[in-house]
From TrEMBL:
The organism's taxonomic lineage, starting at the top: Bacteria, Pseudomonadati, Thermodesulfobacteriota, Desulfuromonadia, Desulfuromonadales
Entry keywords, A to Z: Glycosyltransferase, Transferase
Record's keyword annotation contains Transferase: yes
Pfam families noted in UniProt: Ppnp
Protein name: Pyrimidine/purine nucleoside phosphorylase
GO molecular function: guanosine phosphorylase activity; purine-nucleoside phosphorylase activity; thymidine phosphorylase activity; uridine phosphorylase activity
Gene behind the chain: ppnP
Length: 104
């Protein structure tokens, strides 16, 4: 889906890693939540509370998923899932545009 309809957008940005990663929260009527964001080149590690699906909208990134020791490359049109209560690492070599869906 290329657009969302009938949603609420939280105006204040989520800003991480000295502004190199930013996102905006999108809330849906059914209670689900997504974030739309941009990552500048760099290396990042994130902790998750909820399970998430990260969809690449532009650019690419190398991802080290929990329980693995192999980096995988994901680029525009691809996605990956991260389990709840885990940590994953990213190497971003070019600007990456993403949509993160939080799973219940």
């Amino acid at each position: 889906m290329s657009e969302f309809k009938n949603v609420t957008i939280v105006k204040k940005a989520n800003v991480y890693f000295d502004g190199k990663v930013t996102s905006r929260t999108v809330l849906f009527a059914d209670g689900t939540k997504k974030t739309l964001g941009i990552m500048m080149p760099g290396e990042y590690a994130f902790d998750t509370a909820a399970a998430e699906v990260m969809e690449m909208l532009g650019g690419s990134m190398e991802v080290l998923l929990p329980g693995t020791d192999t980096w995988q490359i994901f680029s525009e049109g691809q996605s990956f899932e991260v389990p709840a209560n885990s940590k994953f690492s990213l190497k971003v070599r070019e600007v990456a545009d993403y949509c993160c869906s939080y799973l219940k």
